[in-house]
C-alpha cells in the first residue's frame, strides 16, 4: 500500500514537473502570466492553510506578511543599488520572518475567536502604516520596481521577460512548496495537527505546544512573505492592496473554495479563484459579489471544499468505501 | 486652549457611537460565543438605508425608526438561516459565515449605491449650532450623543429590570443552564442577534450625516469596535462603555495633539492592555 502511494506521488511529481517546464512552449504570454500568478497565490494559500487547516487557527490578517514581503522587496531594491535578485529576496524574507516572530509572540497568547479578531486588528495596523508612512511606502501611490537580473558568476540571467520570470517562479516556489509539504509530514508538522485535535493531551505528553505553534506561525509568515515578494516582483509594483484586508479575504476565499482538509486543496482553490476571477471580470464588474455567494455556498453545502469533493469522487469511482470512512475519522 | 472642551465633546460623541456598535457585538459574543464580523456591515447598511429613506420621505426622524427595524429583521434572518446552520461545525465556520455575510453586504452596497461617498443632507434645527457656556457646538453632534445615551439607558433598563433582561444576562453566563431551565434559547439567540443588528444599524443612521457614507465605513468602525471589545473584555458591557470612552477620547485628542500618530495610539493602548491583561480590562480570566 505504502509502495503504491509513493509510486503515484512520484508519477504526479514528474507529471507536474514536465508540464511546468513544457507549458511556456505551448501557451500564449497572457496565459503564462496568469499561470505565474496562480503559482504565487498557490503558495500564499498553502501557507494560509497551514494555519487554518493544520493548526485550526483562523486568521483574517495573513496579508500582513504577504504585504510586508511585497513592500520590503520593493523598498530594498529601490534603496540599495546593485542589489542582486537573491539578495533582495533573502533580505526581505528575513524581515518578514522577524515580523512573524514579533507579531506571533503577541497574537499566540490567544486562540479561537480572540485570535481571529486580533489578526484583523494587526492587519489594520499594518495597512495604516503602509498608507501613512508616505516617505517609505509611497502611500496610496505604491512603489514601482525593476526586477534585478540574476547573476550566476559567469553569466547574467535576465528576468524581465514573462517566460523567464515564470521559470524562476516555478522553480523557487515549487521547491518551497515541496518543502512545506515535507514539513507537514515531519514530526513537527504532525505535532501541530495533533495539537489542533487535543492540545491538553499533547501538553501531558511533554510537548511545548506554545513553541510549536509559534514555529508554525513564523513558518507560515515566511511562506506568505515569499509569495508577497514574488507578487511584487511579478507585477513590478507594490500597492496598498498587497497589505490590505482585501488580500487576506482573497486568500481566505481561495482556501475555502479549495478545501482545508488536504495539502493540495489551497492549490486547487488558487487555480479556481484566479481563473474564475479572470473569467468573471470579463463578464461583469460585480464579480466580487459572485465570489461572495460562492463562498457562502461552499461553507453551507461543501464544507470540505473542492478537494474534499474530488477525493470523495475518486473514492466512489474506485469503490473503496471503507477507505473514505477511514479518511473521515482521520480528519 | 479653547480647543480642549471641543475635542473632549468630539471624543464623547464618537465614544457614544462606538458604544452603540460594540455593545451589540459584545452582547452577541458573550451569549453565542460568535464574533459577528457582519456587525459593522449592518452599521453601514443602516447609514445607506437612511440615505435612501431620507431621499424618499424627507424625514430624518423616520429613518431613526424604520432603518433599525429593517436591520432587526435582516439580523434575525441571518441568524436563523445562515448562522444556525453552521453552528454544529464549530466556531471557525460561524466566523466564516458572518465574514461571508459582511463581504456580500459590502459588495451589494457598492452595487446598489455605487462605490463613492454619499452626503446625507439634514435640514431644520439639527444643522445649527448651540451656545454651550460660551462655546458654539454643532447641534447634530449633541443629538448623536444624547441618542447614544438614551439608547444605552433603555438597554440597561431592559437588561437589568425586566425578565427578558434576566434571561439574556443568564444566557451570557451559562447558556446550557438557561436552556435546561426551559427557556427557548435559540429564539433568544435570534432575537439578541437581531437586536444587535438593529443597534448597529441605528448607530449607522446617526453616523451617516456626520461621517461620510461610503463602502469603507464598515471596515473602519469594525476595527475600532474590535479594539474596544478587546480592551474592555469580550462579553462585558461595562468594559465596552469604559473602552469606548477611552478610544473615543484617545482618537479625538490624538488627532489634536499627534495628528500623525493618532491611529498608532489606539493600537499601542490595545497592545499594552493585551500584555498586562490578555482578557481585557473587565474580561473574565481564562
Would you kindly provide a brief summary of this structure?
With 331 residues, chain A is mainly α.
Whole-number tally of structural domains of chain B: 1
Structural class of chain A: mainly alpha
In one word, what is the shape of chain A?
globular
CATH topology of chain A: ABC transporter involved in vitamin B12 uptake, BtuC
Quote the average pLDDT of chain A.
Answer: 85
Describe the protein in words.
With 331 residues, chain A is an all-alpha fold. Chain A has one domain: ABC transporter involved in vitamin B12 uptake, BtuC (Orthogonal Bundle). Chain A is built from 15 helices and 4 strands. With 286 residues, chain B is mostly helical. The longest helix of chain B has 30 residues, at 3-32. A two-stranded antiparallel sheet of chain B has the order 1-2. The mean pLDDT of chain B is 86. At the A-B interface, helix 5, helix 11 and helix 13 of A face helix 3, helix 4, helix 9 and helix 11 of B.
Write the layout of secondary structure elements.
The complex is a heterodimer of chains A (331) and B (286).
Chain A: H1 2-26, H2 29-54, H3 63-79, H4 85-107, H5 112-132, H6 134-137, E1 143-144, E2 150-151, E3 156-157, H7 162-185, H8 187-197, H9 199-204, H10 209-235, E4 237-238, H11 245-258, H12 265-283, H13 287-301, H14 305-318, H15 321-330
Antiparallel strand pairs in A: 1-4, 2-3
Helix pairs in contact in A: 2-7, 2-10, 2-11, 2-12, 3-4, 3-5, 3-10, 4-10, 7-10, 8-10, 11-12, 11-14, 12-14
Chain B: H1 3-32, H2 39-57, H3 60-86, H4 91-113, E1 129-132, E2 135-138, H5 139-161, H6 163-173, H7 175-180, H8 185-207, H9 217-232, H10 237-257, H11 262-276
Antiparallel strand pairs in B: 1-2
Helix pairs in contact in B: 1-5, 1-6, 1-8, 1-9, 1-10, 2-3, 2-4, 2-8, 2-9, 3-4, 3-8, 5-6, 9-10, 9-11, 10-11
